[in-house]
Amino acid sequence: MQRISPIVRERNGFTLVEMMVALFIFAMLSVAGVIMLRSAVDSDEVTAENLGQMAEMQRFVSLMEADLSQALPRTARDDRGDRQAAFASETGGPEAAFLKFTRGGQSNINGEARSNLERVEYRLAEGNLERWRYRMTDGGSIDQPAVLISGVDTLELRFRDKRGQWSNQWETERLAELPRAIEMQFDQEGRRYRHLFLVGTGYL
C-alpha cells in the first residue's frame, strides 16, 4: 500500500516585531491627529473671541457716532431745576460722566407722547464703558446702564473747539456750545484704541 505524504500548507501572518511596528505607527498617527484637532479647536476659539471683540468694538463705535452726530446745542435742567450745559465732561468718581449731552432723533416705535430728544451719559466704571439715558430730557430718573465694552483702562479725551484748537478739557463760557470733534483713546486688554468722532454733524 502506497503511503500518501501529508500536504504542507503555508500560513501567512505577522511577526511580533511587525505588529509592534504597526502599533507604533498607528499610535504616532493618532497622537498627530489629536494634536491637529486640538490646534484647530484652539484656533477656532481664538478666532471667535477676536471676532466677538471686533463686533463689540464696532457696535460701540457705531453707537457713539450715532449719539454724537445727533448732539444738539440744547441746555438741560437737573432735578433741582438748575440749568446745565448742553455738553459736559466730568472727571473723578464712578458716577462721573466723561460725556454728557442731549441728542435728537430718538426713535418712538410705540408712538408714545414724548419728545424725540434724549439726554445721554457715558461713564467708565470698574473697567466697563457704560451708556446711561434719562427718561426725560430735563430732570427725571435715569435708566440702568448698558455696558458697551469691558476691560477698558486709561481713558483719555481731547476736544476740538470751533477755532480748531484741541484741549484735554471741555470748557466754554456759552452753555449751549458744542465741541466740533472728540478724540478718544483707551487701552483694552493690552491694546491701544483711538477713535475720532464728529459732534453735531446730523444738524449742520
**What's the order of the H and E elements?**
HEEEEEEEEEEE
Strand order across the largest sheet: 3-4-5-6-7
Q: Biggest sheet, in brief?
A: 5 strands, antiparallel
Any idea what the CATH architecture of the domain at 67-203 is? Roll
Tell me the name of the CATH class of the domain at 67-203: Alpha Beta
List the uncertain runs: none
**Beta-strand content estimate:** 25-35%
Q: Summarize the amount of helix as a percent range.
A: 25-40%
Backbone CA Rg: 33 Å
* Category from helices, strands and their pairing: alpha+beta
How would you state the average pLDDT, rounded? 82
Label the overall shape.
Answer: elongated
Question: Would you kindly provide a brief summary of this structure?
Answer:
With 204 residues, this protein is α+β, with helices and mostly antiparallel strands.
